[in-house]
Design brief:
0% strand, mainly alpha
Length: 158
């Protein structure tokens, strides 16, 4: 029990970790299977004469396989099956969400890297264009300065 308590505490401290989430989900699933098997075995010994049969029932219920070879006919077995099924569905949802979030985070990181690369390329092109414009302006100013300060032109025109 101490193992589960420490694991739960670790998960509460760092819930965003996929590793911690996976450990929590697997642990919770195992606990649900074992507790479900114990409850069914204790309260419905006629249908589940051995712990192995009860464990098989809860295991195929939590995995949503349901072979049909072990199905509860009494209320206790059906209640346990319902709890196990709802837990399994919730766990599958959490696992799917965790995996999806990893894919989304990876895609976002790739897009961010691509955007940064495009920004760098754009800034490089802008700097090159500005440098080219500055050179042209310098040549125009030089030409303009040379034509306006030419003494022969001043004497011809004036």
């Amino acid at each position: 029990m101490q193992f589960f308590r420490r694991g739960f505490q670790r998960f509460r401290n760092e819930p965003a970790s996929i590793r911690h989430a996976s450990v929590a989900i697997v642990s919770l699933t195992m606990v649900v299977v074992v507790i479900g098997a114990v409850v069914v075995r204790i309260f419905d010994r006629q249908e589940y004469p051995t712990f192995g049969r009860a464990l098989w029932f809860t295991l195929q219920t939590v995995t949503t396989v349901g072979y049909g070879d072990v199905t509860p006919e009494r209320v206790v077995g059906r209640v346990v099956a319902g709890v196990v099924m709802v837990t399994a569905i919730g766990l599958v949802t959490v696992v799917t969400a965790a995996i999806t979030s990893v894919f989304i985070a990876a895609a976002r990181a790739k897009i961010d890297r691509s955007d940064r690369s495009e920004d760098t390329d754009t800034f490089g092109r802008l700097e090159s264009s500005l440098a080219s414009i500055a050179e042209r302006l310098d040549r125009l100013e030089s030409t303009l300065a040379a034509t306006t300060s030419d003494p022969e032109r001043d004497s011809d025109g004036g």
